[in-house]
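Exercise (ungraded).
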Amino acid sequence: MLINYLKLAYKVLLRRKFFTFVSLFGTSVTLLVLVIGSAMLDYSLSPNAPEVRLNRTLLVTYMAMRGDQNEWSGDPGYGFIDRYCRNIPHVERMSVYTGAHGTASFIQGEKVVSQIRHTDAEYWSILDFAFIAGQPFGESEVANGSHVAVISQSAARNLFGDQSPIGRSFETQGQTFRVIGVVRNVPRVREAAYADIWVPVTTLPTEEWKTALMGDFNAMLLADSPRHFRAIRSEFAARLPHVVMTDPDNFKTMSGSPRTRLEDIAAEAVGMTNDSPRTGMFIGVLVLLTLLFMLLPAINLVNLNISRIFERVSEIGVRKAFGASRRHLVGQFIVENIVLAVMGGAIGLVLSMWALHVINGSGMIANADLRMNPRIFLYGLGLSIFFGVLSGAYPAWRMARLDPVEALRGGQR
Amino acid sequence: MIWHYLKLVWNRRRANGLILAEILISFLVLCVICGVAVYYAGNWRRPLGFDYHNLWTLDVSMPQQAIEDSSARAHGLAISERLLAAMNATPHVEAAAPMANTPYSGSMSRMGITLADGSKLQYFWIQTTPPALGVLKLQLVSGRWLQPGDDVLSYTPIVITQDLAQRLFGRENPVGRTIDSYKDGKLETSSKSWQERRVIGVIRNYRKAGEFRDMPYAAFQPQAMTNPDRGGVPWSYGMRVNPGTPPAFEESLLKAMHAEAPDWTFTLRSVELERQRSIRGFLLPLAFAGTLAAFLILMVGMGLVGVLWQSVTRRTQELGLRRALGATASAVRNQIIGEIVVLTAIALLVGSVLFLQLPLLGMVKFVGVGVFVTAIVVSCLIIIPFVILCALYPGWLATQVEPSRALQYE
């Protein structure tokens, strides 16, 4: 039976090439956009090198300090993280690091801008950087405030050209660093890892950052298992009332909570209520946008399918007159649609692979490495089948209701 | 005639409902994109008020203490004075001044005030020194610009943009007037450092947020460089350099800065490059959304051709009968095109009413109704010809119907 349906579908699709083309075009372009969108989302949310332990990581990226009239919210300071975020039960390892900031170096009068990040030694054990040469800095370098640096491949090329960078020095912000390691470039979306130059946190000028409650630092808390996120959060919350405020006249309390990457992104996209990210709303908005985007292609497809059916009114009439049941007719039509949708889906997936390749190569997103993984592939395929069933159901229902006598005559209305 | 088409459209309402929905959604998508484009274009046309060529900005970041207590602030101000002197001594620098809210920067520090009538407004708030006029090449319209000694007056002298003057004082002469903020109907003078803000001059404009943003309210007031109780340590500077300044300028300037303040970090930016980046930041998403919409609408168009084509073949008898009764080919074609145009008109009407709810219900406050109306007009001008284009081939097909075949049918 199915073979017959497939044969029929093939014949029908060839008969009206324009309709087939329009359907395929609509399905594949819609899928292309959805696949690129979900590839980007999946890419920034799922663990990828160097953030290979992202599933077990909580990030302290946002704190708020409040007084009667004052409010200061943003990245916490080293003083807060150092005093209150260490030794939390269920946290295996903890790292503290600054954001990545643009910094200029001058190589024979040419300006080279790199992103620099100040980190501790644990940083290298939570993140898995791909070292091409040398090694990261360790506890002793951090304790001594050694002016050593790990740099990315592209920074190595910008700073030293084709020469081997290990052991060479470069100058930035009035300080000189000696290169001890070179790592593969890190994509921009790997928020905690991204930079071109990594140096020990103790090379920061002055000493004030060591005690500041708010500032420019983030922390990664590597939990032994995601199941203990809740326990870690409540321990964190329990410590907040004990924070000794450095400026009690203006600021009295501190609030905030460690977040997952999803919560971080949600907070940035749709904001927060009472210092907690509106993650549910973020996901809701994404789903709504996807549905809205699919609405137009879906209506278009329904419209085309109805037209296709009425073109075949006499065929349907003959089949009905010879006793084909409604179920058979609906089944046949839906199979036809799924064939069409899967074809469109296949074209869409090929197009998206090409588009992802183009995006990676274009440099639109620094060091992007978007890939099609099996999860996205299945998601895309599922989506196109859903699309086919959806756009086939209403026309099939209308077809099944056709009066055979009317249909045999060619169907007036 | 239109009533007749309407009747024809109504008779096939079930099939037409879906077409209507399609056109309606396409129209709304187009309206949103046109709305953004129209809004950008309107903002783009208005004068920027400063000259971004050969302009550089320097951001400094300093130890926290320099912001917090008074003695550290005095120390910070002393360093800032030395930095300014070093900037002016650097070759190719024509003029330099401390200023917050440098052009195209991410820093958006704004002062919010409540007017006597209870309405609120925010303006960019720039503490600076007299050379800023030449650094930014602002155009003074009336009154005077800041001058040395302004930072020790018993009031705060303030220079505002034309748009802010218009908003605060209407057509009256703003020079000599004060900018007051009210709380519960009373003049707000509570804070310790409160001083009357008196307008001393008006400049044409200072749209630091750039061409595409509608943020024309800005006010300049003196930066106290010697008195730590009357102002903080500036964290950004503007610099005007000679045309044709070599790239080596950057290195020598940053070296000079580090020599004066080894503990501070500096970021030097070319405003010209920042402007390009800002413009890209506005146009890329629009171009992306536009491409997407173009694909969607193209898809709808092709779908429309298919549906019309099909409906013409199905209506052979009706069209043939009309031809047999003496209707000309063009009358039949006009009928097909007329029907779809009537359908489109209904969709556009519904769409316009829906779209206009955005400003009417106050969901988008900062954009005028005019922008929405223009967006609707532009979208109509795109959709209607496009729909007619889609109907041309099916319309021509309809004229090919042989009356004899149609009559044979029954």
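Further reading is listed at the end of the chapter. For now, observe: Chain A has a mean pLDDT of 87. Residues 115 and 195 of chain A are 5 Å apart (CA to CA).
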